[in-house]
Specification:
- With 480 residues, this protein is α+β, with helices and mostly antiparallel strands.
- It folds into two domains: 193 residues, no CATH class; 157 residues, Heat Shock Protein 90.
- Helices cover 55% and strands 19% of the residues.
- The protein has eleven helices and 13 strands.
- Strands 2-1-5-4-3 form a five-stranded antiparallel beta sheet, sandwiched between helices. Strands 7-9-10-12-11 form a five-stranded mixed beta sheet. Strands 6-8-13 form a three-stranded antiparallel beta sheet.
- Helix 2 crosses helix 3 and helix 8 packs antiparallel against helix 10.
- The N terminus and C terminus are likely disordered.
Length: 480
């Protein structure tokens, strides 16, 4: 059976997902701010250019009134009056020249004469037909696109300057009849500087807005993320606990199903093992020189197997509700010590026992506890090298009866401690890999606590804690 996955593998990568979500939100925020800045930039630029167009239009209308009043009774056409007014307006600062068009947008004249004749654009023609001025800014206009000839053209160099084309309708103020159109070519360096100043301020506003809103976004989302992370971690922990509980239930179910089979098997093995033990005992009688070491090992093994079978039958008998007896903690420890005395001598491992508890246990509790202690001591003997020491101590601590088994082995690797009480493949020759798992099930059945208290290269310490409710004080058990 495979162990449960590590907790970190079950926890989603919420931190990475959070920063990805924040990054996506910040990108959306940046695109939104950029779109808003570009929209506002376009509107303001259009208003700046249109402002100059409205000013030239108003100036042209005022010049028309002056042209009419200055000429007294002289009668001139509206086209001539508009032409004269445009010429007067061309004296404004920055005006490089004027193109004149008729009502259909056809070029008619220019001032000065070196201005390059160009057709009137469709958008400008539609605007002047509604008696509204039209403007268009060109950030980098070559002078060859404005003038037919300039002295500098002879040198082969053509300067490039920003220009503003302002097309105004020519008409009387008191009438809406269009007489023509005049297109002013205005030097646009001042507008270019104003545009640059506008862009600088808009960039500052965009950066400050992005920083403030982005910070608020992170601050608002961080508590929600922490809560989601905690929920995910709790969910992962519960999932792992549930998986372990399922494994323990499965192990308990298999142990329960094997109970009847174990009882039948132990009962069937009892008599053959007794006969085998008697046979080996007769074969091992004699002097120490005539009896081989193999016979002694066989006799020890047969007696140990017989003791195991009898102890298992006692546990099964207690589980069936047969009459029980009481056993003191010291007697329990003495029985366990007696079982390992011969094995300790053969392996040259010292067994140290200390018992301080003054409690009596029912035979059922004592037998189940001894099964756990026997398994822990067997593991301790296997792990301890020759010449080492294995200790078993018992002490009463508060409301718990504490059994402590320590060895001088190499300890458990870090990666195996998490799945210590789960069935696994044993690395020990002849091992089953389920000893600690069964011991944990027995401890849980008793309401006891079994855990690995210490593990280092100098050895391990296992602790079995029985609740005081599982035993009685020796003084109470005796009649007064």
């Amino acid at each position: 059976m495979n162990g449960t996955p590590n907790l970190e593998k079950l926890i989603p990568r919420t931190r990475r997902a959070f920063w990805l979500g924040v990054g996506l939100a910040l990108n959306v925020l940046a695109v939104t701010i950029l779109a808003g800045v570009l929209y506002v930039r376009g509107l303001v630029r259009e208003q700046i250019a249109q402002r100059d167009a409205e000013a030239l239009h108003a100036t042209t209308l005022m010049e028309q009134l002056d042209a009419i009043s200055n000429n007294g009774k002289e009668v001139r056409s509206e086209e001539q009056i508009g032409f004269d007014a445009a010429l007067l307006a061309s004296r404004l600062r920055g005006v490089m020249g004027i193109r004149f068009y008729d009502t259909n947008g056809v070029f008619t004249d220019s001032f000065p004469a070196t201005i390059l004749p160009l057709p009137l654009g469709r958008s400008a023609l539609e605007s002047v037909r509604t008696l509204k001025p039209h403007s268009r800014f060109h950030p980098d206009t070559p002078l060859s696109a404005v003038f037919i000839y300039l002295p500098q053209f002879a040198t082969g160099t053509v300067a490039r300057v920003p220009t503003l084309d302002v097309t105004v309708p020519l008409h009387r103020r008191e009438t809406e009849k269009l007489a023509g159109a005049a297109q002013f070519i205005v030097e646009g360096q001042s507008i270019a500087d104003e545009y640059a100043h506008l862009d600088h301020h808009l960039i500052q506003i965009a950066v400050i807005t992005f920083a403030v809103v982005g910070l608020l976004l992170v601050v608002m989302l961080w508590p929600a993320f922490r809560r989601v992370e905690k929920l995910n971690r709790d969910l992962a922990v519960r999932g792992e606990r549930l998986q372990r509980a399922n494994e323990e239930l499965a192990l308990a179910a298999r142990a329960s199903a094997l109970g009847a089979v174990s009882a039948h098997l132990m009962h069937g093995l009892k008599n053959p093992l007794a006969s085998l033990s008697q046979f080996v005992s007769r074969g091992s009688n004699g002097s120490a020189e005539s009896v081989g070491e193999d016979w002694q090992d066989a006799l020890s093994a047969s007696r140990r197997m017989q003791s195991l079978v009898e102890q298992t039958l006692e546990v099964l008998g207690d589980a069936r509700g047969e009459p029980t007896y009481e056993l003191s903690v010291k007697d329990l420890v003495a029985n366990v010590q007696q079982r390992f005395a011969m094995a300790a001598g053969r392996r040259q491992v010292k067994l140290v026992v200390e018992a301080e508890g003054k409690c009596t246990l029912s035979s059922r509790t004592a037998n189940l506890a001894s099964l756990v202690l026997v398994n822990l001591l067997e593991n301790a003997f296997e792990a301890t090298p020759t010449g080492g020491t294995v200790s078993l101590s018992v002490a009463r601590e508060m409301e718990r009866l504490r059994f402590r088994v320590s060895d001088e082995g190499p300890g458990f690797p870090e990666q195996k401690r998490e799945h210590l009480f789960l069935p696994c493949k044993s690395e020990r020759e002849g091992g089953s890999g389920i000893g600690l798992a069964i011991s944990k099930q027995i401890a849980d059945h008793l309401g006891a606590k079994l855990e690995l208290a210490e593990s280092s290269p100098k050895g391990c310490v296992f602790v079995l804690e029985l609740p005081v409710s599982a035993c009685e004080e020796a003084a109470v058990a005796q009649p007064s």
